[in-house]
Specification:
Strand content: 5-15%
Number of helices: 4
CATH superfamily: Aspartate Aminotransferase, domain 1
Helix content: 25-40%
Order of helices and strands: HEHHEH
Oligomer: single chain
Number of domains: 1
Distance between the termini: 23 Å
């Protein structure tokens, strides 16, 4: 919830949508940014490790090889997959570290 409030006005950062009647488990906090790889390097340079949990769109994963999908078959899905980045989240993160993550994100232009 801290991320949602603090990052809601960050340009080009797409946050997870949470409907009003839903209480998320926040197993992952996946955002989207058009310059995902640059953003990931920026965070890493500040000692903040992130992950790309879904680097391959489902239709290009090995599970669907027999269907002969190729890059370009689902361009919207592929564009979205190329922008996904998982931020650190969990009860082990202290408030100071969360604030550092938020500050480092907002410094990214």
């Amino acid at each position: 919830e801290r991320y949602l409030k603090a990052l809601s006005r960050m340009p080009h950062l797409v946050l997870p949508h949470v409907p009003a009647d839903v209480e998320p488990a926040w197993h992952l906090f996946v955002v989207r940014h058009p310059r995902r790889d640059e953003l990931q390097r920026h965070l890493s340079g500040a000692g903040i490790e992130t992950l790309i949990h879904y680097p391959v769109p489902p239709h290009l994963s090995p599970a669907y090889t027999e269907l002969s999908y190729v890059r370009g078959d689902y361009p919207r899905t592929e564009r979205i997959a190329d922008t996904l980045l998982s931020l650190p989240i969990g009860p082990h993160l202290g408030t100071d570290f969360q604030n550092r993550i938020i500050t480092t994100l907002t410094e990214f232009v």
